[in-house]
Each structure stands twice: as C-alpha cells, then as structure tokens.
Design goal:
Oligomer: single chain
Helix content: 40-55%
Strand order of the largest sheet: 1-2
Number of strands: 2
Structural class: mainly alpha
Number of helices: 6
Strand content: 5-15%
Radius of gyration: 17 Å
Shape: globular
Largest sheet: 2 strands, antiparallel
Amino acid sequence: MQVSVEADLLKTLPCVGTVLSMVMMLEIGSVDRFPTAAHLASYAGLVPRVHSSGGHTHMGQVCGNVNRNLKWALVETANLIVVNQRRLSGTHVVRLYQRIKRRKNHQKAAMAVARHLAEASWWVLTRQEVYREPQLAQQALSSTHG
C-alpha cells in the first residue's frame, strides 16, 4: 500500500518502517520550511545548546521546546539500529554509534545517530531520492605515500 511518496522515501532510511515513516512524514510536514538539514535536526531537538565565553565552549542539554513526536521517532529508530547492529554491521549508522559510544556513552551515541537520521531525512525529502550511505572521505595520495 503506497500512502505517499515522502513516507516511502523515509522508509529507505535504516530501520524505518511504515509506522515510523508516517510519524516522521506527518511531523516534518513540508520540508521546504527548513532551510538546511541542521534546522530540521534542531526542530527535532537533536542539537545541544552551545555556551561559549572566553575561548571556552560548553555543550549543554538539548532545548526543551522541540517537536517531541519527531524526536521520539528518530530516537526510536536510532535504538532499533543499536539493537540490530549485528545485522547492519559495516553501515555508516553503526560505525557512527560505535565510534561515539567508545568515547562517550550509549545515550549520546544514540542521539548522534538520531541527528544523522534527521539530517538524512531532510536530504531524502529535499532531493526526492532514496537514502544512500554517505561516502567515506578518501585521503589524497601524496608522492611520499604511494
């Protein structure tokens, strides 16, 4: 059953099924109202507050005035990715989770994955293309390193 093109595009994100894609589509609404992917992530409450003074930067908690349903859907998807990380091994979202979890903790790593999913949702809906794994940045070869 095809409900909408947007919901079908969101289903191409890792671990997003029919229910989560519908919640995300309805809560995002028209993607045109977000000028960048970072704006959508902020709307979903996945961007921490930044306090800077005198050359010191402190990352605080996320804002409380956010779209809670969209945040729930994205964090739920991130937790599904964590549960299914063996099946999804080698994907960008699993590598992102594992890299951050080594330095921080599960909650911060899951929020980072949720933010990636929010930004990926913006790109998927803006370009009207299915989700693709981000390309790894390849190091430029120099004459001394072959």
